[in-house]
Write a structure and sequence with these properties.
heterodimer, A: 201 residues, alpha/beta, Rossmann fold, 14 strands, globular, B: 252 residues, TIM Barrel, 8-stranded parallel barrel, 10 helices
């Protein structure tokens, strides 16, 4: 069973539905004991970093994440959930992340020149390393992005990038911790393949 | 490379898709669920659902259908029609919508844009504008294009973006239904003043209209249409192949 962490940020309907569609049992929960009992964990998130990180800590969910990841359980952060895996974010101030991935979260507007921010839409993946997450995905496949901040100074963890003025971090991984900046639950067949690969690891 | 998006739009009334739909291989051509699945597999990049019912029963049916669509189709879904309060946003987002489109509701109460953007993020709020040429300018029309609001379209769109609208759908009443191409002049005027994605709507009659749109106005992010897709006059796969052949990046 997959535990989708519910800490009051964003809409989890599509994520739960997409897992159910590929035949994976998932539960949306904010209960540390349910998260501890799961086989793997998804950390979703939409919205502002500071608010999300505070909510996660307020509910003691950061602790259960550290404990379970420490035991080797697989964790997938999606969108803001990926950004929270980083050490710190510079989204309206400086805020501490979970520190599971080395690097910082910085504003896209500072690096993409005159391109529009948020980066909204379908963009193609360029692989940077072999990743089990991309077992069913080909180089150049399209996934759906919606974000205004990006993972930086994380080159050792980057598994794929997308070109948007600069090479934007599309996904990261370190040991049993994975993160995608894009939304696999909104990326059609390609996205379902990524979720399936995560659930098969 | 980010792609240009192709977006079919489904008007839903009492649980059925309105505007004739003519497809081979579809069992029930007016089922929003079947049609959404068809478009998703045909390569649509996003779907827009407009709730055009006025009754409470129709509305309940709409949210039920939306839930079913969102449980089976995993591409971005935008919902519009009758959105006038934050609780309307809440209702459709809980059913699996990713973005909510406001039109008349925002004209009546512009604060709605700001409130919704603060609560759900700019990326969630789409400002849909029906505009028409009046006296040398572009004027905003409300209530499905029936009422002249007196608002200047360019000023209204600038204001909407300043308040937090994350995307603009510009529907030109002048070109809508004419099938002679998008309103490039009106779109250009809007692209010059905003830096959020602009979605062109109204006037597409053939594949070439989309090629011309993206060639002449590289700042336009997406093309939206309804009947030409529903009637199969333009097939999304063919359209995307043709755009690709013309050097326009699309998701194939």
């Amino acid at each position: 069973m997959v535990a989708i962490i519910d800490y009051g940020v964003g809409n989890l309907f599509s994520l739960k539905s997409s897992l159910s569609f590929i035949g994976v049992d998932a539960v949306v929960t904010g209960d540390p004991s349910v998260i501890a009992a799961s086989d793997r964990i998804i950390l979703p998130g939409v919205g502002a970093f500071e608010d999300a990180a505070n909510k996660l800590r307020k509910n003691g969910l950061d602790k259960v994440i550290y404990e379970e990841v420490g035991k080797g359980k697989k964790l997938l952060g999606i969108c803001l959930g990926m950004q929270m895996l980083f050490e710190e974010s510079y989204e309206y101030g400086v805020h501490k992340g979970l520190g599971l991935i080395k690097g910082k979260v910085l504003p896209l507007a500072d690096v993409v020149g005159n391109l529009k921010v948020p980066h909204i839409g379908w963009n193609s993946l360029s692989f940077k390393k072999d990743s089990k997450l991309y077992k069913y995905v080909n180089q150049g496949d399209f996934v759906y992005f919606v974000h205004s901040f990006y993972g930086s100074e994380c080159s050792e963890s980057v598994s794929a990038t997308a070109e948007y003025g600069v090479e934007v971090t599309a996904s990261v991984e370190r040991d049993n911790v994975y993160g995608t900046q894009f939304h696999p639950e909104k990326s059609g067949e390609v996205g379902l393949g990524i979720l399936r690969a995560f659930c098969e690891m | 490379m980010i792609t240009k998006r192709i977006i079919p739009c489904l008007d839903v009334k009492n649980g059925r898709v309105v505007k004739g739909v003519n497809f081979e291989g579809l069992g029930d051509v007016s089922s929003p669920i079947e049609l959404a699945a068809y478009y998703s597999s045909a390569g649509a990049d996003e779907l827009v659902f407009y709730d055009i019912t006025a009754s409470a029963e129709g509305r309940a049916l709409f949210t039920d259908i939306l839930t079913q669509v969102a449980s089976q189709i995993f591409i971005p879904l935008t919902v519009g029609g009758g959105i006038s309060t934050i609780s309307d946003f809440d209702r459709v987002l809980k059913c699996g919508a990713d973005k909510v489109s406001v039109n008349s509701g925002a004209i009546k109460n512009p604060q709605l844009i700001e409130e919704a953007a603060k609560k759900y993020g700019d990326q969630c709020v789409v400002l849909s504008v029906d505009a028409k040429r009046v006296g040398g300018g572009f004027r905003v029309f409300g209530r499905g294009g029936r009422d002249d609001t007196g608002l200047d379209a360019i000023e209204w769109i600038k204001r909407g973006v300043a308040m937090g609208a994350g995307e603009i759908v510009l529907n030109s009443i002048d070109t809508d239904g004419v099938k002679n191409g998008f309103d490039l002049e009106m779109l250009r005027a809007v692209c010059e003043v905003v830096d959020v994605p602009v979605i062109a709507s109204g006037g597409a009659g053939c594949v070439e209209d989309f090629t011309k749109l993206f060639r002449e106005l590289p700042k336009v992010d997406a093309g939206l249409a309804a009947s030409i897709f529903h009637f199969g006059e333009v097939k999304i796969q063919d359209l995307k192949k043709e755009l690709n052949a013309n050097g326009i990046t699309v998701r194939l």
